[in-house]
Amino acid sequence: MNRRYPEFAASLKRILGAEGTVEQPADLAELDAVVRGFRARNIDVVCVSGGDGTLHAVLTAMVAAYDEAPLPRVAILRAGTMNTVARGLGIRGTAIDILGFVVSRHATGSMPTIRRWLMGVDHQLYGFLFGTGLFAKFLDVYYEGSAPGPAKAAWLLCRAAGSSVIGGRLIRQIMTPYEGSVEIDGVTWPADRWMMVMAGTTDDIGFGFRPFWKSLTHPGHLHVVGVATMNPLAVVREMPRMYRARQLRGQGIFDEAGETLVLRSQAPITYALDGDFHQGGTELVVHAGPAVDFVVP
């Protein structure tokens, strides 16, 4: 949790009482040390105060610290700008309400949870939503200028859909294809230029769209979607099916569940993971990771 909010931290401490502690790591090195301390103390519930990016950083640190051991339960307090993962899990309420629920249920030993599998990139970073090409570029534009938030994301999505119809400036700006091969569980898909390649281990990407629904019907697998056509209208036409969690079937669109996705390109691969941007090498291995049990109030 960020050090800039002492009043918020004080409120969390009051709710926790003797049930737990509030940690405020200033950087990733401190975060790693804090999480190693959780394991040493046998902490059984970790509450994450932040949004998707914070959750991604904490879970990455947890996988490293716990190695092959089961991870503790995780409660997302929904204190970030974007809380896509929390909303997809059906988690509602304020950070104070959620923490109060965790404390009360921890005392009784009855705490409802829902299981999701992490997705790892090169066994180094862990999250739930991965993407290259248009998927990553859309987020890049989203974080430019005014402060990000659900309203801005919805407006940008509508603008992108409209821009795709007329071939406008916005769609040209975010149409940065991924050029390389896509292999899932040893089978190479038949294209080498992609509008985008994306994968998820949780179904909901926001606004009710559920392109990764197979991650729920195939536990421990990624749901991978590749769009080989350069026509953005092909994606727009598939949006109703994404909303209804149905198999995508447009021309040049590949939709499959698997355990391992491998991308190979002649250039370093830029990708987004849970809203954070990363530059990888010329080969990326995206794999199903360990399970996480999330507390759902």
Please provide a written account of the structure.
The structure is a single chain. By secondary structure, the chain is an alpha+beta fold. It is 36% helix and 26% strand. The protein is built from 10 helices and 16 strands. Strand 1, helix 3 and strand 2 form a beta-alpha-beta unit. Helix 2 crosses helix 3. It is globular. The two termini are 21 Å apart.
Protein traits:
alpha+beta; globular; six-stranded antiparallel beta sheet; 10 helices; Tumour Suppressor Smad4; 297 residues; 2 domains
Strand content: 25-35%
Percent helix, as a range, is 25-40%
Number of strands: 16
Which spans have pLDDT < 50 for at least 5 consecutive residues? none
Number of helices: 10
Class by SSE composition: alpha+beta
**CATH class type of the largest domain:** Mainly Beta
**Main sheet properties:** 6 strands, antiparallel
CATH topology of the largest domain: Tumour Suppressor Smad4
How many domains comprise the coordinates? 2
- Indicate the mean pLDDT: 86
Gross CATH architecture of the largest domain: Sandwich
Shape: globular
